[in-house]
Amino acid sequence: MHWLITASRRLKELGILGMNRRNAACILDRNSRALFPLVDDKLRMQDLCRRIHVPTPIVHDSIDYHSMLRRFPQNLGDRADFVIKPNHGSAGRGVLVLVGRDAKGYRRHNGECVRVDQVRQHLSDILSGMYSLGARPDRAIFQQRVRLHPAFAAVAYQGIPDIRVILYRNEPAMAMLRLPTKASNGRANLHQGGIGTGIDLASGFTHHAVQRNRMIECHPDTGMPVIGLRVPHWPRVLGLARRVASAVGLGYLGVDIVIDEIEGPMLLEANARPGLAIQIANGRGLLPRLKAIDALCDKPREPTVNIAIPKWKKSA
Ligand SMILES: Nc1ncnc2c1ncn2[C@@H]1O[C@H](COP(=O)(O)OP(=O)(O)O)[C@@H](O)[C@H]1O
Ligand SMILES: [Mg+2]
C-alpha cells in the first residue's frame, strides 16, 4: 500500500494529468462532441487542410464499396508508391506502406512482397470495419507516401516519424516525436512499439525518451541517440499545429504532423481524445502547462484607453 501512496504523490508532484481529469476538465469541458466526427475522418480533415492552406499528403484515391475492389489495380495505373489506410483508423492499425511494384505484386517498406489479391483482401478488411473506430464499415484511402527527412535517417527504422502536439485553447501544451522501430513495422504509433520522445517546446530539441513505458537513450534498432535531436522546421510545425487547432475548434486537441523531405511539415491527422502517454515520453505532467495556458488566456485585458486627440492636433 505504501508504494501506492508514494507513487500517487510522485505523480501529483510531476503534475501528471490523469485519465479522469483529462476526460472531465479537458475533453468534456473544452471539446464539443459535435466536432469529433470531423477529426475522426481523415478525408474530411484533408478537405479542411485544403481550405486553410495547410499542407497534407495527397489522397490519390479512395475505395468506398466492395464492388470497387475488382478494378483497384487498374485505377491505380502505374502508381506503386503509396500508403493504404482506413479512413477512420487509429493506433496505426490497418496502415500498409507500399514502396514499389514488380511482376509478383507490391513491395512493402520492409522489402516484403504482397500479392494483388492480398492487397485486395486488406482493402476488403478495411471496408468491413476491421480497423475502424467502433468497428463500423469504413472507406480505404490511397495516400501519398511521405519521404523520410534526412534529420531522422539515423533514428527511424523503415518508416516515417510523426510529431504529436497537444494544443490547449489553441496553445501548444506538450509535444513528442514518435519514432518507428522494427517492432512498429513502418508506423510510428506507440501502441505498435514506436518510441515516444519528449520535445522541448521552446527549442524543438528532444530531451527524454521511452519505448513501451521504459526510459531509453538510443534507438533499439539503429543504436543511435534519440535525445538531443533537433526537429527540423520546428517553428513551422508549431504554427501549423496552431492553425489546425483553431480551424477545428476543439479546445483540447492532438495534432499529428509529419515532415516530408521535400515538402516539409504536413498534417497527418488530428485526435480529439489524445492519449496521456505524451507525459511519460516527456517525463513530466501536463497540468502545470495547462494551468499556465489558462492563466495566459484568462488574464484580464488592459482596458483600452480612449485617447482623445486635441483639436489643435487634428488640424495640424
Ligand atoms: N502517407 C504516409 N507516408 C508514410 N508513412 C505514413 C503515412 N501515413 C501514415 N504513415 C505511418 O503510419 C503511422 C500511422 O498513420 P496515421 O495516419 O496516423 O494512422 P492512425 O490514425 O492509425 O494513427 C504514422 O505515424 C506513420 O509512421
Ligand atoms: Mg496516427
Brief account:
It is built from 10 helices and 13 strands.
In words, what does this structure look like?
With 316 residues, the chain is an alpha+beta fold. The protein has two domains: 15-56 and 146-298, D-amino Acid Aminotransferase, Chain A, domain 1 (2-Layer Sandwich), CATH 3.30.470.20; 58-145. Helix content is 30%, strand content 23%. It contains ten helices and 13 strands. It has helices at 2-14, 19-30, 36-39, 42-52, 72-76, 116-128, 234-248, 277-282, 287-298, 311-314, and strands at 59-63, 82-86, 96-102, 105-108, 113-114, 140-144, 162-168, 171-179, 195-199, 206-211, 214-215, 252-260, 264-271. The strands form two sheets. The chain has a seven-stranded antiparallel beta sheet with strand order 11-10-9-8-7-12-13. Strands 1-6-2-3-4-5 form a six-stranded antiparallel beta sheet. The longest helix has 15 residues, at 234-248. The chain starts with a helix and ends with a helix. The mean pLDDT is 91.
Looking at this protein, list some descriptive labels:
316 residues; alpha+beta; D-amino Acid Aminotransferase, Chain A, domain 1; six-stranded antiparallel β-sheet; 10 helices; binds adenosine-5'-diphosphate; binds magnesium ion
What is the string of SSEs from the N terminus onward?
HHHHEHEEEEHEEEEEEHEEHHH
Binned strand content: 15-25%
The largest β sheet comes out as:
7 strands, antiparallel
> What global shape is seen?
globular
* CATH topology-level fold name of the largest domain: D-amino Acid Aminotransferase, Chain A, domain 1
Radius of gyration over C-alpha positions, nearest whole angstrom: 22 Å
CA distance, first residue to last residue: 80 Å
Helicity level:
25-40%
Which consecutive residue ranges, at least 5 long each, have pLDDT under 50?
Answer: none
CATH superfamily of the largest domain: ATP-grasp fold, B domain
Q: Averaged pLDDT, please?
A: 91
Overall number of domains: 2
Present as ligands are: adenosine-5'-diphosphate, magnesium ion
Widest β-sheet, arrangement of strands: 11-10-9-8-7-12-13
Provide the CATH top-level class of the largest domain. Answer: Alpha Beta
